[in-house]
Design brief:
Elements: H1 3-19, H2 25-38, H3 43-56, H4 63-75, H5 79-87, H6 92-95, H7 103-113, H8 118-126, H9 137-154, E1 158-159, H10 160-175, E2 180-185, H11 187-190, E3 195-196, E4 198-205, H12 211-222, E5 227-233, E6 237-242, E7 247-254, H13 258-266, H14 269-281, E8 285-287, E9 290-293, E10 296-299, H15 303-309, H16 325-330, E11 345-349, H17 360-369, E12 374-377, H18 392-412, E13 417-420, E14 423-425, H19 436-439, E15 445-448, H20 457-468, E16 473-476, H21 494-504, E17 507-511, H22 519-527, E18 532-535, H23 547-556
Parallel strand pairs: 4-7, 11-12, 12-13, 14-15, 15-16, 16-17, 17-18
Antiparallel strand pairs: 1-3, 2-4, 5-6, 6-7, 8-9, 9-10
Helix pairs in contact: 1-2, 1-5, 3-4, 13-15, 20-21, 22-23
The structure holds 2'-deoxyguanosine-5'-triphosphate (DGT), calcium ion (2 copies) and zinc ion.
2'-deoxyguanosine-5'-triphosphate (DGT) binds next to helix 11, strand 4, helix 13 and helix 14.
Length: about 575
């Protein structure tokens, strides 16, 4: 059902209008939003059946609001909302990124303290002016301060997940140009780092003095749709900035230097420095043009031959952080990293039972088309009221639906199984919000912290460990609580959590959406012999494909197939 989303958008429009002190209109939008939120019928169905006239029958919805709903149902966007956001006296886009600040609070800050943007807000915090405001208080001021610090850290960096589709589109575009013999993204994007400062592209052509081809490539780059500013345009390098503020560099090299250049520009800087030191020791010189001995170029065309000449195996880009990978490459003992095609299932997805977008059947069908052997349904549990979390009774009801679907797969000869899991809430004292008797009926139990984030480190650590000590628990989801780009970690002694996971044989999740378990912690867990599971945390069927981003982070943590729980076949999972 799209009803909630539509209501949300209308509500937002109302709030922006309210901020701008426009009379009557805000209430109209908000009333329409409430009516749609309370509607029994699916608004999309209504629109499909009766068109815009049908929408106008909803209480509070006139022609103008109906048009906006239509636009949203068709395109997923409402232009009007974008426009009023832009014309607002306040940088709401920026301020609403601060956790805890909704339009109402922002309006108050603006009216009483003249806060228009993040900078004003920081000033008000410095002057300690927020806490005394009605409805704010010390705790709120502290929360705002923490959130701003978090935003400041991440400022200017982009999430890998958000830029990969664009990067792939651009590579496709250049692949089609005749004369391009090799191309790749380099830098942190190639290393699949979870956040990206800028994107570095590399293209090789046969002859870099071919003025016509050089011009064509550079022109294509600076005139892409997404370009808002050309920062520089030359024959070997051009730089642009895109509409959303992302910078991109394109470097052009000759075919014979591509390997050396891609090695150099992939980095990381620390990896390169260590590698160059080894080259020097062996009497070579290594730079972005090639590997040289006495000014004579020995290698340069491929990365593989450069690593080989230096006496080591080629190192996967995700590992190039100078964390011991060079030593392993010299000993020819590099791990064989897990790949997306090794993944046999997913233990973390949500269905319409807990407010997700799609039914168990729809999710399962998508999982089958992804080539999975199984899918674990991990809907939220009762403490998460806003998510319509399941209580004991609904868990047992859900089991019936899953059993029927599994039977239908058997009848059709489809080799696939739906597992009933659950994303059980860890309560404040470390107990679980579903009784053991019901948990025993599940195929597996995964647990998460979703509330009371602000407790001391010792208390939080004890809380999580207590949950892991329940013998029914198999997986700890998003162990640090972070949502990359949105929310920081809760305070927790992750070493102690690792020890408890090891002791109780609980797998730790690498969450594709949150990227909350850093690659160093994953690597440590692997070394301790703890299993990891890569979970998409999909709330609809499309997001099941986000598994790839979890796999990238797993690779950055040096994980091999055998370290990953959901790279195991159904029979090897050891379920009943
Ligand atoms: P980013 O953009 O902050 O996400 O991170 P990177 O790794 O993409 O860094 P960037 O764009 O500054 O440079 C791309 C690569 O070029 C980098 O990973 C390694 C190489 N590189 C850049 N500057 C230096 C340097 O001063 N020394 C060495 N050895 N390599 C460098
Ligand atoms: Ca970069
Ligand atoms: Ca760069
Ligand atoms: Zn979840």
């Amino acid at each position: 059902m799209k009803n909630q989303e539509v209501a949300q958008i209308l509500f937002e429009i109302g709030e922006f209008l309210e901020l701008q002190e426009i009379p009557f209109k805000p209430q109209a939008y908000q009333q329409a939003a409430i009516a749609i939120d309370n509607m029994e019928e699916d608004i999309l169905d209504l629109y499909k059946k009766e068109g815009i006239k049908g929408l106008e029958k909803i209480s509070g919805v006139g022609k103008s609001i109906a048009e906006k709903i239509e636009e949203f149902l068709k395109t997923g966007k409402v232009k009007y909302l974008k426009e009023i956001k832009k014309s607002s006296p306040i940088d709401l886009e920026e301020l609403t990124k601060v956790e805890g600040l909704g339009v109402k609070r922002i309006k108050k800050l603006w009216k009483e303290l003249g806060v228009r943007n993040l900078k004003d807000l920081e000033k008000a915090l410095d002057d300690h002016k927020i806490a005394p405001l009605f409805g704010f208080g010390e705790k709120m001021e502290q929360n705002i301060l923490e959130s701003i610090q978090f935003l400041r850290q991440g400022r200017g960096r982009f999430l890998l997940r958000e830029i990969i589709p664009e990067v792939e589109r651009i590579l496709e575009k250049f692949k089609k140009i005749k004369g391009v013999v090799n191309l790749s993204v380099a830098g942190s994007t190639r290393r699949r780092k979870e956040t990206i400062g800028d994107v570095d592209f590399l293209i090789a052509i046969k002859d870099t003095t071919d003025k016509y081809l050089v011009e064509k490539i550079m022109n294509t780059f600076v005139s892409m749709d997404e370009v808002i500013k050309i920062v520089g345009k030359g024959e070997t390098k051009s730089s642009i900035r895109t509409k959303n503020g992302l910078s991109m560099d394109l470097r052009l090299v000759s075919e014979g230097s591509f390997g050396a250049a891609i090695q150099y520009f992939t980095g990381s800087k620390d990896h390169n420095i260590a590698l160059r030191r080894i080259a020097i020791k062996q009497g070579y010189k290594l730079n972005e043009y090639g590997l040289f001995r006495n000014e004579r170029k020995i290698k340069g065309e491929t990365e593989e031959e450069i690593y080989e000449k230096l006496g080591m195996n080629w190192i996967p880009p995700e590992m190039r952080e100078n964390q011991g990978e060079i030593e392993l490459a010299i000993q020819k003992k590099l791990p064989i990293l897990v790949e997306l095609k090794d993944i046999k299932g997913d233990f973390h997805c949500h269905t319409s039972w807990d407010g997700g977008e799609h039914s168990i059947k729809e999710i399962a069908e998508r999982a089958i088309s992804l080539g999975y052997e199984y899918i674990g349904i991990a809907d939220h549990t009762q403490s998460l009221k806003i998510e319509n979390g399941l209580d004991e009774k609904r868990i047992l009801e859900q089991r019936k639906e899953i059993d029927l679907l599994n039977k239908s797969f058997i009848d059709k000869g489809i080799d696939f199984k739906i597992l009933q899991g659950s994303e059980v809430d860890i309560l404040k004292d470390g107990s679980l919000d579903i009784n053991d008797k019901t948990l025993e009926t599940l195929d597996y139990v995964s647990v998460s912290i979703h509330s009371n984030f602000k407790m001391g480190k010792r208390e939080m650590t004890k809380r999580i460990i207590k949950a892991l000590e329940n013998p029914l628990v198999k997986i700890l989801n998003h162990p640090t609580g972070m949502i990359l780009g949105k929310r920081g970690e809760y305070e927790v002694d992750i070493q102690e959590v690792l020890k408890a996971a090891k002791k109780n044989n609980v797998a730790l999740e690498m969450n594709s959406y949150r990227s909350d378990l850093g690659y160093q912690t994953a690597k440590l867990a692997k070394e301790m012999g703890i299993k990891l599971t890569i979970g998409s945390d999909a709330h609809n069927k499309k997001e099941l494909a986000d598994m790839q981003f979890g796999v990238y982070q797993a690779r950055r943590g040096w994980l091999e197939k055998k370290d990953v729980l959901n790279a195991l076949s159904l029979n090897d999972l050891g379920l009943r």
